[in-house]
Amino acid sequence: MLRALMFILPIALTIYAFIDCLNTPEDETRHLPKVAWVFIILLFWIVGPVVWLVAGKARRGPAGGRGTGEWRRRRTEWVAPDDNPEFLDSLRDGGKERGADEERGTGKDDEALLEDWEADLRRREEELKRREGGDGPSRGDDDPKQS
C-alpha cells in the first residue's frame, strides 16, 4: 500500500496543480507567465507542483485575504428576484403593457384564433369518426395535397 502511495501521491498532486494553474487568472500568477508554470508543472512532475503551490500563485490567507467589507459588497451584487425591486417593477410594467395590448384589440385577435383552432379541431374529430365508421371517403380522396 505504501509503495502505491508513492506513485499515486505525486500524480494526484501534479493533476491538482495543473488544474489549479489553468484556472488561475494571469494576473494572479507570480514570478513567471502562466504558460511557463504549466510547463514547469508538467516537465518536473515531482517538484513542479510543489513549487507552483508554494511560489507560483498569489494566495491570500484568512488574515490577509478579503475583508468583510469586500465580501459584503460582493454579496450585495446579486439579489433574489423576490427581493429585487427593479425586477418586481418590471413585472408590474409588463402587466400594464399587456392591458394596453388588449385595449388595442390583440386580445380579441387571440380569441378569434382560439375559436378557429377549436373549430378546426372539431372538424378533424368528425372526420376521424367518419373514417372509423366507414361512412367517409377513402384516404386518398380527402387529402388536400393531392387535389
TrEMBL record:
Region span, Disordered? 81-147
Q: Where is the composition biased (Basic and acidic residues)?
A: 89-111, 119-147
The Cardiolipin synthase N-terminal domain covers which part of the protein? 12-56
- Localized where? Cell membrane
Protein keywords: Cell membrane, Membrane, Transmembrane, Transmembrane helix
The residue ranges crossing the membrane are 35-55
- KW Transmembrane helix (keyword) present: yes
Example of a GO cellular component annotation carried by this entry: plasma membrane
Concerning Pfam families, the annotation shows: PLDc_N
What highest taxon heads this organism's lineage?
Bacteria
**Membrane topology of the entry:** Multi-pass membrane protein
Establish whether keyword Lipid biosynthesis is in the entry. no
Protein name (Swiss-Prot/TrEMBL)? Cardiolipin synthase N-terminal domain-containing protein
Source organism per entry reads Streptomyces kanasensis
